[in-house]
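Dear support,

I submitted the protein below through the web form. The confirmation email said the job was done, but the results page showed an empty box. After a refresh the structure appeared. I'm attaching both so you can tell me whether what I see now is the final result or a partial one.
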Amino acid sequence: MRHGDKIKNLSRTKAHREALLANLSSQLIEHKRIVTTLAKAKALRVFVEPLITKSKENTTHQRRIVFSHLQDKEAVKELFDNVAPKVGGRPGGYTRIIKLGIRPGDAAEKAMIELVDFNEIYGKGAGEEKTAAKKTRRRGGSGKKSAAAPKSEEATEIALAEKEEVALEAETAKADDTAAVTEAPAQEETKGEGNEEAKA
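What the results page shows now:
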């Protein structure tokens, strides 16, 4: 029993497997998403994500290391020039695997693997470079709570301002009504005094 067998062999020899993963990685970097089998997509994710991490440091040494894995100059250039700036602020998790169902010919599970930062469908602001501008945190709960708190505070401030406006309008309406009520008897009294003077 092979307890230490953690490599997805894909029913290939080492050389064949490395050539396959290098070709898939080059195509993924060039086209930003590819469709393949689910097993190959899972093996590709483990192969390509360390290369994307290496591309964040744009040095000749890192370029040579990535080229030794990919054996494709155009893919290396695309990775360091276009992909690396977009994933600069992301601490890993550069790819997404989406299952596509069964292939009719051989009943293999198909999947699409894509670079997360180049997707125009999922998420808000997809395709923009704001992810490279700010660094994200790995701790899950703290960022969500702090981001949600200002929104609720703003909402409460807006609600309080609206309530104050309504209260002010009600007060002015009351003041107008009381002024009208006090003016009416005063006018009647002045009329009555005028009639008495006329009689006298």
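Response: this is the final, complete result; the empty box was a page-load delay. The longest helix spans residues 140-199.
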